[in-house]
Write a structure and sequence with these properties.
The complex is a heterodimer of chains A (156) and B (93). With 156 residues, chain A is α+β, with helices and mostly antiparallel strands. Chain A has 4 helices and 6 strands. In chain A, strand 4 and strand 5 form a beta hairpin. Chain A has one domain (9-151): Roll (Thiol Ester Dehydrase, Chain A), CATH 3.10.129. A 6-stranded antiparallel β-sheet of chain A has the order 1-2-4-5-6-3, with helices on one face. Helices cover 28% and strands 39% of the residues of chain A. By secondary structure, chain B is mostly helical. Chain B has helices at residues 2-16, 37-51, 57-65, 71-75, 77-92. The longest helix of chain B is centred in the last third of the chain and has 16 residues, at 77-92. Chain B starts with a helix and ends with a helix. Classes of the chains: A alpha+beta (156), B mainly alpha (93). Chain A binds chain B through residues 75-76, 100, 102-105, 107, 125, 127, and chain B through 38, 41-42, 44-45, 48-49, 54-59, 61.
């Protein structure tokens, strides 16, 4: 994870498009500029970044299921809960599932665990928007390789 | 038609916290009820689930943007319900 660059996912360890499920691993860094402010002398992973982790986990799944035809933009967060403290060095896992694929949008649910203990959950709504240009698709392919998803394999 | 309208009106009332008795078949979801595009995604999700269909929102949006259709054709509730009935009939055919 590089929190300051919003690089939340280290890698995906499960991807089951047929079951519409995905699992991500993320290790919270020991140091980050984020912790300098949140909070001085008491570093905690911000709850909004846990929501971002859930959004990125399920966002990749939306992209896989829809064939990488566009970027899933997070447009809604419902029933979000932050259930526990996440400290530097924690090993996080995120389970994501698509519960509905609509026309141009998708609804997902995600849960996060820190060292196996539940720490967050939310229902997330995504709206698909076309990639701004072909260059962006190449960036997506590079990002996919880094986290263990072959964009080419799932592209329509 | 009436049962479809009742289901849709109840969904809108619950999703958007709009008094049920202000929702009529002639209500325009956007102009009269003030539903925005994000709220409409929640409504579409509930309609998709309730009727086992997939509202073609992308197609409708494209047709409106290209001037091939008016918003009234899709977002006045009696018209929306007629389209839902059509999608349900097509699914069951």
């Amino acid at each position: 994870m590089r929190l300051e660059y919003f690089q939340m996912i280290d890698r995906f360890v499960e991807l089951k498009p047929d079951e519409r499920k995905i699992k991500a691993l993320c290790k919270v860094p020991m140091e980050s500029p984020v912790f300098e402010g949140h909070f001085p002398g008491f570093p905690l992973m911000p709850g909004v970044l846990l929501i971002e982790c859930m959004a990125q986990t399920t966002g990749w799944l939306v992209s896989v299921i829809t064939g990488f035809v566009g970027l899933p933009l997070l447009v809604g967060v419902k029933e979000a809960k932050i259930k526990g403290i996440v400290s530097p060095g924690a090993e996080l896992t995120f389970d994501g599932a698509i519960i509905h694929e609509g026309s141009g949008y998708a609804i997902a649910e995600a849960k996060g665990y820190s060292n196996g203990k539940p720490v967050c959950e939310a229902r997330l709504t995504f709206s698909l928007t076309p990639y701004p240009n072909e260059e962006f698709r190449k960036i997506m392919i590079e990002m996919g390789h880094k986290v263990g998803i072959s964009v080419e394999e799932y592209s329509k | 038609m009436s049962s479809t309208f009742d289901t849709v009106a109840n969904i809108i009332a619950e999703t958007c916290d709009i008094p049920r008795d202000t929702i009529t078949p002639d209500s325009h979801a956007i102009d009269d009820l003030g539903i925005d595009s994000l709220d409409f995604l929640d409504i579409a999700f509930a309609i998709d689930k309730a009727f086992g269909i997939k509202l073609p929102l992308e197609q409708w949006t494209q047709e409106v943007n290209e001037g091939k259709a008016t918003t009234e054709e899709y977002f006045v509730l009696k018209n929306l319900c007629a389209r839902i009935d059509g999608l349900v009939a097509a699914k069951n055919a």
